[in-house]
Structures are given as structure tokens and as C-alpha cells.
Prior knowledge:
The protein is an alpha+beta fold. The chain is built from 5 helices and 7 strands; from the N terminus they run βααββββββααα. A 7-stranded antiparallel beta sheet has the order 1-7-6-5-4-3-2. Strand 4 and strand 5 form a beta hairpin. It starts with a strand and ends in a 7-residue tail after the last helix. The model is unreliable at 151-157 (pLDDT under 50).
Amino acid sequence: MAVRHRLIKAEPAVVWEVLADGNRYADWVVGTGESRPKQGQWPQVGASIEYEIPLGPMRLANQTVVRHCEEGTRLELEIMAGFLGTARFSIELREWGEYCLIIADEHPLQGAGAVLHNVGVEALIQVRHRSMLARLARCCEERAQRRPTPSARQTRTGEAPGHA
């Protein structure tokens, strides 16, 4: 089972905003082409997105389905990769001081990926996760930098922005 951790320098709410945007899936998932909603409202249970994976001159049509969602803290997906089979991908968000600790866990469920799963495949998944989590961190940290931050006075007094 490929488990990888990454500290993202953004609040968990910012990380969740990126994960909850199905149109941004291809921005952080390695190997996917443009993603688009297929069914339901992402990231609600049962919702899905579809995308293509370019493999040289070929393109594999894949989809990802939400199997479990705890808003703001956990998203569990089933990746349906055609002849390669399916995989479970879980991403957990934990508050870590002012940042977000991500715990990603992926393992094959059925099909060729499950039958051929071995130490070598596990190593490839680890390399893929390192790149994927770096891309997710970049998306989230850029988003966090664009967000307005409360002034020191608003933080001290609890005032809403725009009120004096």
C-alpha cells in the first residue's frame, strides 16, 4: 500500500477548496489530461469526473468516482483505469499548526493492476505520489497567496472585513 505524506503551506480549508473542484483534478493528478464532470456534484458520494491519459499516440479514457467524503478532512476515490483495473485513492487532510498535512494512500482493487501489484509497482506509485503531492501543494499554496488575509486589527478584535 503506497502511503505518502506532504506538508502543504496552506490552511486545510484552502486545500479542500482545490480537492473539491473537479475541474482542477488534472491540475494536481499526474498523467491526466483535461478533467470534466461526468455525473453528480463533485465531491459528493457517487459523483464522477472523466479524463484522458495520453500514452504516446493512444489516449485512455478513465473516470474517478467519489466513494467516501468527509467534507474538509477526507476524500476517498475509486480510479477506473480501463484494462488496468481500479484503484482506491484516499487523501486525508489534517490541521498541522497553520498548515495542512496531507496523507495520500493508494492501492489497486481489481484488474491487471491488482494482479500485477508488487514491490516494483509500489515504488512507481511512490514516485508518482511525490510528484502529485508537489503539484497539489503548488496549486494550494498559490491559491492561499491569492486569498485576502485579515488585518491584524480584525484578527485581534474579531471584526468582519470592511467594518470599523
